[in-house]
Amino acid sequence: MIEIDGSYLEGGGQILRTAVALSAVTKKPCRVFNIRSGRPKPGLALQHLLGIQTLAKLSNAKLEGDELDSEEITFSPSESTGDNLQQLRVEIETAGSITLILQTLILPALSLLNPVKIVFEGGSTDTFFSPTIDHFRYVFLRILEKMGARIEINVTKRGYYPEGGAEVEVIVYPAKLKAINLTERGNLQRVLAISGASNVLKGKKVAERQLAGVREILGKLNLPTEEKVEYYETRSPGSQICLIAEFDNSVIGTDNLGKLGKRAEDVGKEAALELLKEQKSGACLDKHLSDQILPFLAHIQNKSRVSISQETAHAKTNIWVIEKFLKGKFETKENIVAWLPL
User: Fold this and answer.
1) Which residue in 135, 288, 299, 314 is the catalytic one?
2) pTM for the predicted model, two decimal places
3) Cα(first)–Cα(last) distance of the chain, in Å?
4) Is 314 a catalytic residue?
5) What are the pLDDT digits (tens) for 213-267?
6) Four-way CATH pick for 2-182+286-341: 3.30.300.30, 3.65.10.20, 3.30.1330.10, 3.90.1150.30
């Protein structure tokens, strides 16, 4: 039984997500304790609970301690997997993050023998303290595609805080991931700016004003830019913007959310300033991808190298968890992270 202290370093839900995902693919049982102990409300929130319960179905695992606010769980996979599963349904009654639940499920689902469809009813596609669905599918999944993954996401309804109400279908196809050497991103091809908001905000031109904020920052640089404006029928009013910089060999991105009392132009400006910072780093992976991609690199068990814009606390935490499950170690020199299998 692998023991994982959930209060280590960053001490958030990511420790739990990475631990149970790796437990599922390695068949090594784990106990995670002190879950989110440093957070204002410790223990399992609904999105963490639903993530591990869905993973238990996917991997045919025995799960104990799976209750709201629980600060300790044990996850024990069986040798038989969920290969006969064709569909999983996740019902989220709150505005819980769909992308954070997917972080729990993607790696184990890739390891199955057959495709699996994951249907989300409720929850948020775009909410605070998690990747937006656009960053997830147009940045994170693009890097996974370079490693051989094939994942389809269909968003039929957006969901924002506080009511959620999203509708999303995800299909994960089985794949044998391959190592990557992603240290030179090449020339910039284009910046795709996707700005979206609820229909009730259409009269105030919120999505267009978010893009105006982006132009105020990026317009002087004469970058090849494509803009998309989207409006949606949603339960709660909200807005988001995602900037995707596509290079010859890689893709980086930033996102931001609208907030009551915050000018839409400022939402776009903040995302653009963050993109400039990421671009100046010269790295192939933005700071959010720098931790999200690590479990996939280590799972391959061949040497991979990636350049990252910043080694965040999330990345350091993920490295600590991964090295408890897999035979190998990460080595970081300047902005290059390498997985060295033993």
Assistant:
1) 314
2) 0.95
3) 21
4) yes
5) 999 999 989 899 999 999 999 999 999 999 999 999 999 999 999 999 999 999 9
6) 3.65.10.20
